[in-house]
Amino acid sequence: LPFSNDKTHGHIQSFREQLMEAAQKAHLKTPVPGKANGVLVLNQPLLIEAYVGLMSYIGNKNKLGYSLARGNVGF
Questions:
Q1: Which residues pair with 73 in a beta bridge?
Q2: First to last CA, the chain
Q3: Phi and psi dihedrals of 70, rounded to 5?
Q4: Are the C-beta atoms of residues 22 and 14 closer than 8 Å to each other?
Q5: Residues 43, 22: contact at Cβ < 8 Å?
Q6: What DSSP line would sit under 7-60, residue for residue?
Q7: What is the pTM of this model?
Q8: pLDDT 10s digits, 11-48
Q9: CA–CA separation, 67 vs 23, rounded Å?
Q10: How many of the other CB atoms lie within 10 Å of CB of 39?
Q11: Apex 22 CA angle, 16 and 27, nearest 5
């Protein structure tokens, strides 16, 4: 992990182990018919994009962003 420290890496590793254990327990409890016997865990980089600029700032201030609740309607 290029921007992680030991503490962050430890949290991620702990989360990964807990997630794998939970997925395996769920699969044993309720197996999916016709699917593989077990859980496949892929370790791949996660790309997170952040947009910075005037239009992003205006959109955030005016709550015009994606996936925001607007009254009784959310999208």
A1: 70
A2: 33
A3: -125, 95
A4: no
A5: no
A6: HHHHHHHHHHHHHHHHHHHHHHHSPPTTS-SS--------------SHHHHHHH
A7: 0.48
A8: 888 888 998 899 889 888 888 777 777 777 788 888 88
A9: 28
A10: 15
A11: 125
